[in-house]
Amino acid sequence: MLLIRCPYCEEERPELEFRNAGEAHIARSANITGESDDDFEKFFFIRSNPKGIIYERWRHMHGCARFFNAVRDTVTDKFIMTYKAGEPKPAKVPGVAK
Amino acid sequence: MKKYSVFAIAREAMRGHKGWEEQWSSPEPKKEYDVIIVGAGGHGLATAYYLATVHGITNVAVLEKGWLGGGNTGRNTTIIRSNYLYDESAGIYDHALKLWDGLSQELNYNVMYSARGVMMLAHNVHDIQVLKRHVHANRLNGIDNEWLTPEQAKEFCPPLNISKQARYPVVGAALQRRGGTARHDAVAWGYARGASARGVHIIQNCEVTGVKRAANGAVTGVETTRGFIGAKKVGVVAAGHSSVIMNMAGVRMPLESYPLQALVSEPVKPVVPCVVMSNTVHAYISQSDKGELVIGAGTDQYVSYSQTGGLHILQHTLDAICEMFPIFTRMKMLRSWGGIVDVTPDRSPILAKTPVPGLYVNCGWGTGGFKATPGSGHVFAHTIARDDPHPINAPFTIERFRTGRLIDEAAAAAVAH
């Protein structure tokens, strides 16, 4: 079980309190009806599914119930950092060479 | 390839078993092949086997980063069934089921396919509606599936608890009698032996690190840890790593990879005569011929390539197993393991040509690909050999996620995903 730090509660809590909510930083088009089929497919179905660093959303369901974002390594499952929803995608991730 | 038979056993017994030959050879990779298959699991090896036997294409290499059958082929719960809801799924899974019957004879290798029946339990009104819908849809597609009362379910599987006081009471069940199990390792070994005997090169410990494309976009070969290997046709059958390989060719996939866990108990005398699955409580169980209870759990909720999963996932499944089979509450579990499964948004596989000429993909089998191994290999070999899908896998395109013509087994599959 993962130990996840909620950036709102500022506490590490067990995974059971959280729901994973998929890849982060996928913006829904402001004009969704005007989207082409290609763009809609990218938005709705295509995922980066990286072997390595993933940016993903979590929700602290059984805590503050708020969504936040996390950076995690999908090979080790170790969290590198978590940050609040709405904050920009971190340009530099601590401990990761880019 | 020397044929296995009772006479071969007698002959070898006479001379101290010194005459058994290697089941498959391990040649050095050539510079170029007609077809390269990435991934020597059941599906990849079956593809190579049918390329050789059905289409006469034997200049084939199967590249495997680890060892043959060491991924999900050796990590699954070996359940075989074809009672899927939609016509397209019924087509492909029943194609596989028909090939399972007779596969041991075809491969001259005992894959231990045992049609012991797959029983899916209903615990509430919604389950009854869904499973009955399956029963009717299956029968319209010519696939056997029948409805059982709780008493009939108990008769078919005596250790099942059908008490009305149970936490998850059994209110009915759907039974596919042709469903069952097979010996997963033997499936990989049998296909490998058959393919190797026909000239296919199986190259283990050879990880694909890049996909080379010509100026016109067509595939020219793959970069590997053992150097560049050329081929005009490359089939990607890499399960949880399919999207990683496809990314090397510049194709982004509608896939996410999750750990899926299974576990086995200590071996005991025969007690579970069939496969029992439950969607609502998410557990499935059968008994191997060695006597171990083979139990399948769910996926973790997050993308991962770790080949391990959370302990709470296993605990949840064992809670359910103990409720359904109180007889097992004191069983000891011996081993658990995780495999990485590639899941599509509609929970149906992708077996198709790709936007890249010469690149083919067979992936997205998610949590239940083992059952399809023979059928998947058979139609994928056709797709590669003819550069055109077989009618059975024609609906399983990548483009369906753009056109919206999904094969939405997400809600229709036997277990919740």
UniProtKB/TrEMBL annotation, chain A:
EC number(s) of the enzyme?
Answer: 1.5.3.1
* Pfam families hit by this protein: SoxD
Instruction: List, in alphabetical order, the Gene Ontology terms for molecular function in this entry.
Output: sarcosine oxidase activity
Alphabetized UniProt keyword annotations: Oxidoreductase
Q: Which GO terms describe its biological process?
A: tetrahydrofolate metabolic process
Keyword Oxidoreductase tagged: yes
Which superkingdom heads the taxonomic lineage of this protein's source? Bacteria
What InterPro entries does this protein's entry cite? Answer: SoxD, SoxD_sf
For the protein in the UniProt heading, the enzyme class is: oxidoreductase
What name has this protein been given in UniProt?
A: Sarcosine oxidase subunit delta
Species name for this entry?
Answer: Mesorhizobium metallidurans STM 2683
TrEMBL record, chain B:
Q: Which EC numbers characterise this protein's activity in its record?
A: 1.5.3.24
Q: Where in the cell is it found?
A: Cytoplasm
Coiled coil residues, start to end: none
The record, for Gene3D superfamilies, names: D-Amino Acid Oxidase, subunit A, domain 2, FAD/NAD(P)-binding domain
The terms describing its cellular component in GO are:
cytoplasm
Keyword Transcription found = no
Catalytic reaction equation(s):
sarcosine + O2 + H2O = formaldehyde + glycine + H2O2; sarcosine + (6S)-5,6,7,8-tetrahydrofolate + O2 = (6R)-5,10-methylene-5,6,7,8-tetrahydrofolate + glycine + H2O2
Molecular function, one GO term: sarcosine oxidase activity
| Protein name according to UniProt | Sarcosine oxidase subunit beta
Q: Which organism is it from?
A: Mesorhizobium metallidurans STM 2683
User: Which gene specifies this protein's sequence?
Assistant: soxB
